[in-house]
Design brief:
There is one protein chain. The chain has about 270 residues and is an alpha/beta fold. It has one domain: Aldolase class I (TIM Barrel), CATH 3.20.20.70. About 35% of the residues lie in helices and about 15% in strands. It contains 11 helices and 10 strands. The strands form 2 sheets. An 8-stranded parallel barrel has the order 1-2-3-4-5-6-7-8. Helix 7 (about 175-180) links the parallel strand 5 and strand 6 (about 185-190). Mean pLDDT is about 80; it is low at about 1-45 and about 45-65.
Length: about 270
Protein backbone atom coordinates (compact mmCIF):
# COMPACT_ATOMS: atom_id res chain seq x y z
CA UNK A 1 0.00 0.00 0.00
CA UNK A 2 2.81 2.42 0.87
CA UNK A 3 4.43 1.67 -2.47
CA UNK A 4 1.17 2.55 -4.24
CA UNK A 5 0.87 5.80 -2.32
CA UNK A 6 4.41 6.84 -3.13
CA UNK A 7 3.95 5.98 -6.81
CA UNK A 8 0.76 8.02 -7.02
CA UNK A 9 2.40 11.04 -5.40
CA UNK A 10 5.46 10.81 -7.65
CA UNK A 11 3.32 10.66 -10.79
CA UNK A 12 1.70 13.99 -9.97
CA UNK A 13 4.92 15.72 -9.02
CA UNK A 14 7.00 14.38 -11.91
CA UNK A 15 4.47 15.10 -14.62
CA UNK A 16 3.82 18.64 -13.43
CA UNK A 17 7.46 19.39 -12.69
CA UNK A 18 9.44 21.86 -14.72
CA UNK A 19 12.73 20.42 -15.92
CA UNK A 20 15.35 21.40 -13.40
CA UNK A 21 12.94 23.38 -11.21
CA UNK A 22 10.92 22.46 -8.17
CA UNK A 23 10.23 25.95 -6.90
CA UNK A 24 6.59 25.20 -6.19
CA UNK A 25 7.26 22.18 -3.99
CA UNK A 26 9.43 22.26 -0.90
CA UNK A 27 10.76 19.00 0.48
CA UNK A 28 8.45 19.27 3.47
CA UNK A 29 5.44 20.04 1.28
CA UNK A 30 6.13 17.08 -0.96
CA UNK A 31 5.88 14.77 2.03
CA UNK A 32 2.45 16.02 3.16
CA UNK A 33 -0.79 14.07 2.77
CA UNK A 34 0.43 11.40 0.36
CA UNK A 35 -2.45 9.20 1.35
CA UNK A 36 -4.91 11.95 0.49
CA UNK A 37 -3.48 12.33 -3.00
CA UNK A 38 -3.46 8.59 -3.60
CA UNK A 39 -7.01 8.13 -2.35
CA UNK A 40 -8.57 9.85 -5.33
CA UNK A 41 -5.90 8.85 -7.84
CA UNK A 42 -4.05 10.97 -10.40
CA UNK A 43 -4.21 11.47 -14.11
CA UNK A 44 -1.35 13.89 -14.85
CA UNK A 45 -2.41 16.89 -16.89
CA UNK A 46 0.89 16.99 -18.76
CA UNK A 47 1.75 13.31 -18.87
CA UNK A 48 4.74 12.53 -21.07
CA UNK A 49 5.11 15.98 -22.59
CA UNK A 50 8.18 17.43 -20.89
CA UNK A 51 11.23 17.58 -23.04
CA UNK A 52 9.33 17.53 -26.32
CA UNK A 53 10.02 20.18 -28.91
CA UNK A 54 7.49 22.17 -30.89
CA UNK A 55 8.13 19.89 -33.85
CA UNK A 56 7.42 16.83 -31.72
CA UNK A 57 4.00 18.12 -30.71
CA UNK A 58 2.94 19.62 -34.02
CA UNK A 59 -0.40 18.52 -35.45
CA UNK A 60 -0.26 16.79 -38.79
CA UNK A 61 -1.46 13.62 -40.46
CA UNK A 62 1.38 11.53 -39.06
CA UNK A 63 1.52 12.67 -35.46
CA UNK A 64 -0.97 14.28 -33.15
CA UNK A 65 -0.24 15.35 -29.62
CA UNK A 66 -2.47 14.06 -26.87
CA UNK A 67 -4.00 17.28 -25.59
CA UNK A 68 -5.18 17.08 -22.00
CA UNK A 69 -8.60 18.48 -21.06
CA UNK A 70 -9.57 20.23 -17.85
CA UNK A 71 -13.28 20.86 -17.27
CA UNK A 72 -13.47 23.78 -14.86
CA UNK A 73 -16.24 25.18 -12.71
CA UNK A 74 -17.60 21.89 -11.39
CA UNK A 75 -20.36 22.40 -8.80
CA UNK A 76 -22.37 19.15 -9.02
CA UNK A 77 -21.47 15.49 -8.71
CA UNK A 78 -23.45 14.52 -11.80
CA UNK A 79 -21.45 17.02 -13.86
CA UNK A 80 -18.15 15.74 -12.49
CA UNK A 81 -19.01 12.15 -13.32
CA UNK A 82 -20.25 13.10 -16.78
CA UNK A 83 -16.94 14.86 -17.46
CA UNK A 84 -14.90 11.89 -16.28
CA UNK A 85 -17.02 9.47 -18.29
CA UNK A 86 -16.49 11.63 -21.39
CA UNK A 87 -12.71 11.46 -20.95
CA UNK A 88 -11.76 14.59 -18.99
CA UNK A 89 -8.27 14.45 -17.53
CA UNK A 90 -8.81 17.05 -14.81
CA UNK A 91 -11.68 18.78 -13.02
CA UNK A 92 -11.53 22.34 -11.68
CA UNK A 93 -13.24 23.55 -8.50
CA UNK A 94 -13.49 27.32 -8.05
CA UNK A 95 -12.93 28.57 -4.49
CA UNK A 96 -13.60 32.23 -5.28
CA UNK A 97 -16.92 33.34 -3.74
CA UNK A 98 -17.74 36.10 -6.27
CA UNK A 99 -17.70 33.56 -9.10
CA UNK A 100 -21.00 32.01 -10.24
CA UNK A 101 -19.05 28.74 -10.26
CA UNK A 102 -18.02 29.00 -6.62
CA UNK A 103 -18.17 25.82 -4.58
CA UNK A 104 -17.58 25.39 -0.86
CA UNK A 105 -14.61 23.26 0.20
CA UNK A 106 -16.94 20.81 1.94
CA UNK A 107 -19.10 20.33 -1.14
CA UNK A 108 -16.01 19.91 -3.33
CA UNK A 109 -14.72 17.29 -0.90
CA UNK A 110 -17.98 15.36 -1.15
CA UNK A 111 -17.77 15.34 -4.97
CA UNK A 112 -14.08 14.41 -5.03
CA UNK A 113 -14.72 11.50 -2.68
CA UNK A 114 -17.00 9.98 -5.33
CA UNK A 115 -14.60 10.32 -8.26
CA UNK A 116 -12.90 7.29 -9.81
CA UNK A 117 -9.11 6.93 -9.61
CA UNK A 118 -6.79 8.74 -12.00
CA UNK A 119 -8.78 11.97 -12.17
CA UNK A 120 -6.75 15.06 -11.33
CA UNK A 121 -8.57 17.59 -9.13
CA UNK A 122 -7.61 21.26 -9.35
CA UNK A 123 -8.53 23.98 -6.88
CA UNK A 124 -8.84 27.47 -8.38
CA UNK A 125 -7.92 30.36 -6.07
CA UNK A 126 -7.92 34.13 -6.56
CA UNK A 127 -5.62 36.29 -4.40
CA UNK A 128 -6.04 34.16 -1.29
CA UNK A 129 -3.60 33.97 1.58
CA UNK A 130 -1.34 30.94 1.58
CA UNK A 131 -2.87 29.77 4.85
CA UNK A 132 -6.37 29.92 3.36
CA UNK A 133 -5.28 27.96 0.29
CA UNK A 134 -3.67 25.24 2.37
CA UNK A 135 -6.71 24.97 4.62
CA UNK A 136 -9.03 24.51 1.64
CA UNK A 137 -6.63 22.01 0.04
CA UNK A 138 -6.77 19.89 3.16
CA UNK A 139 -10.57 20.05 3.45
CA UNK A 140 -11.34 19.39 -0.22
CA UNK A 141 -8.44 16.95 -0.83
CA UNK A 142 -7.37 18.91 -3.89
CA UNK A 143 -4.33 17.60 -5.80
CA UNK A 144 -3.29 20.70 -7.80
CA UNK A 145 -3.44 24.41 -6.93
CA UNK A 146 -4.35 26.92 -9.64
CA UNK A 147 -3.58 30.57 -8.86
CA UNK A 148 -5.95 32.62 -11.01
CA UNK A 149 -5.47 36.11 -9.62
CA UNK A 150 -2.69 38.68 -9.34
CA UNK A 151 -0.33 36.45 -7.38
CA UNK A 152 3.40 37.10 -7.58
CA UNK A 153 6.04 34.51 -8.48
CA UNK A 154 6.80 34.15 -4.78
CA UNK A 155 3.19 33.15 -4.18
CA UNK A 156 3.75 30.10 -6.40
CA UNK A 157 6.58 28.80 -4.23
CA UNK A 158 6.48 26.33 -1.36
CA UNK A 159 2.84 25.35 -1.67
CA UNK A 160 1.89 21.80 -0.75
CA UNK A 161 0.67 20.84 -4.23
CA UNK A 162 1.87 21.37 -7.81
CA UNK A 163 0.91 24.83 -9.08
CA UNK A 164 -0.75 26.12 -12.24
CA UNK A 165 -0.35 29.90 -12.56
CA UNK A 166 -2.88 31.68 -14.75
CA UNK A 167 -2.06 34.77 -16.81
CA UNK A 168 -4.32 37.12 -18.74
CA UNK A 169 -2.78 37.40 -22.18
CA UNK A 170 -1.76 40.90 -23.20
CA UNK A 171 -0.82 40.98 -26.90
CA UNK A 172 1.25 44.12 -26.33
CA UNK A 173 3.10 42.74 -23.35
CA UNK A 174 4.29 39.43 -24.74
CA UNK A 175 4.93 36.30 -22.70
CA UNK A 176 8.07 37.22 -20.78
CA UNK A 177 6.37 36.95 -17.38
CA UNK A 178 4.67 33.71 -18.40
CA UNK A 179 7.91 32.12 -19.58
CA UNK A 180 9.75 33.21 -16.44
CA UNK A 181 7.13 31.79 -14.09
CA UNK A 182 8.45 28.79 -12.19
CA UNK A 183 5.08 27.20 -11.54
CA UNK A 184 4.80 23.63 -12.79
CA UNK A 185 2.28 24.73 -15.45
CA UNK A 186 1.03 28.02 -16.84
CA UNK A 187 -2.46 28.84 -18.10
CA UNK A 188 -3.07 31.62 -20.61
CA UNK A 189 -6.55 33.13 -20.57
CA UNK A 190 -8.26 36.11 -22.14
CA UNK A 191 -8.30 39.35 -20.23
CA UNK A 192 -11.45 41.02 -18.94
CA UNK A 193 -11.30 43.88 -16.45
CA UNK A 194 -12.40 42.81 -13.00
CA UNK A 195 -12.83 39.16 -13.96
CA UNK A 196 -10.57 36.23 -13.26
CA UNK A 197 -11.43 33.63 -15.89
CA UNK A 198 -14.68 32.13 -17.11
CA UNK A 199 -15.41 35.10 -19.36
CA UNK A 200 -16.17 33.13 -22.51
CA UNK A 201 -13.95 35.53 -24.47
CA UNK A 202 -11.54 33.93 -26.93
CA UNK A 203 -7.94 34.92 -27.42
CA UNK A 204 -6.38 35.90 -30.70
CA UNK A 205 -4.69 32.53 -31.15
CA UNK A 206 -2.51 33.66 -34.05
CA UNK A 207 -1.00 36.48 -32.00
CA UNK A 208 -0.47 34.12 -29.08
CA UNK A 209 1.23 31.61 -31.39
CA UNK A 210 3.57 34.30 -32.71
CA UNK A 211 4.58 35.20 -29.16
CA UNK A 212 5.07 31.54 -28.28
CA UNK A 213 7.33 31.09 -31.30
CA UNK A 214 9.71 33.62 -29.76
CA UNK A 215 9.96 31.66 -26.53
CA UNK A 216 11.50 28.32 -25.60
CA UNK A 217 9.71 25.16 -26.70
CA UNK A 218 9.60 24.34 -23.00
CA UNK A 219 6.83 26.92 -22.54
CA UNK A 220 4.47 25.07 -24.88
CA UNK A 221 5.17 21.82 -23.06
CA UNK A 222 3.58 23.23 -19.88
CA UNK A 223 1.01 25.54 -21.44
CA UNK A 224 -2.74 25.28 -20.85
CA UNK A 225 -4.91 27.30 -23.22
CA UNK A 226 -8.14 28.83 -21.93
CA UNK A 227 -10.53 31.59 -22.91
CA UNK A 228 -13.74 31.21 -24.89
CA UNK A 229 -13.10 27.64 -26.01
CA UNK A 230 -16.02 25.58 -27.33
CA UNK A 231 -16.44 22.36 -29.27
CA UNK A 232 -16.76 24.48 -32.41
CA UNK A 233 -13.44 26.31 -32.09
CA UNK A 234 -11.14 24.17 -29.93
CA UNK A 235 -9.70 22.15 -32.81
CA UNK A 236 -8.62 25.34 -34.58
CA UNK A 237 -7.27 26.79 -31.33
CA UNK A 238 -5.15 23.69 -30.67
CA UNK A 239 -3.94 23.58 -34.26
CA UNK A 240 -2.71 27.16 -34.08
CA UNK A 241 -1.38 27.40 -30.52
CA UNK A 242 -0.25 23.79 -29.94
CA UNK A 243 -0.75 23.82 -26.15
CA UNK A 244 -0.26 20.83 -23.87
CA UNK A 245 -3.73 21.19 -22.38
CA UNK A 246 -6.97 23.10 -22.73
CA UNK A 247 -9.24 24.47 -20.01
CA UNK A 248 -12.95 25.10 -20.50
CA UNK A 249 -15.73 26.39 -18.25
CA UNK A 250 -18.41 28.44 -20.00
CA UNK A 251 -18.03 26.47 -23.23
CA UNK A 252 -19.48 23.38 -21.55
CA UNK A 253 -22.29 25.03 -19.59
CA UNK A 254 -26.03 25.39 -19.96
CA UNK A 255 -25.78 28.26 -17.45
CA UNK A 256 -22.96 29.46 -15.19
CA UNK A 257 -22.06 26.68 -12.78
CA UNK A 258 -24.34 24.11 -14.44
CA UNK A 259 -22.78 21.83 -17.04
CA UNK A 260 -24.36 20.57 -20.23
CA UNK A 261 -23.35 16.93 -20.50
CA UNK A 262 -23.85 17.10 -24.24
CA UNK A 263 -21.48 20.05 -24.53
CA UNK A 264 -18.91 18.27 -22.35
CA UNK A 265 -19.00 15.20 -24.61
CA UNK A 266 -18.80 17.29 -27.76
CA UNK A 267 -15.87 19.33 -26.43
CA UNK A 268 -13.79 16.34 -25.34
CA UNK A 269 -14.64 14.47 -28.55
CA UNK A 270 -13.41 17.47 -30.57
CA UNK A 271 -10.12 17.60 -28.68
CA UNK A 272 -9.27 13.93 -28.45
CA UNK A 273 -10.79 12.25 -31.52
Amino acid sequence: MEHFRMAARNNVLQDFALAGATAGLSSSARSQDTAGQASSGTHPLFSGCLGQTKKDISLNNHHRQVVQVKICGITRLEDALAAVDAGADALGFVFHPPSPRYITPAKAAAIIAELPPFTTTVGVFVNKLRSEIEQIVQIARIQVIQLQGDESPDDCADLSRPVIKAFRFNPDGGLRDVAACRAQAVLVDSGAKGQYGGTGIALDWTVLRDHLDRESDRLRSRLILAGGLTSENVVEAVRIVQPRGVDVASGTESEPGIKSHKKIREFIHAVKD
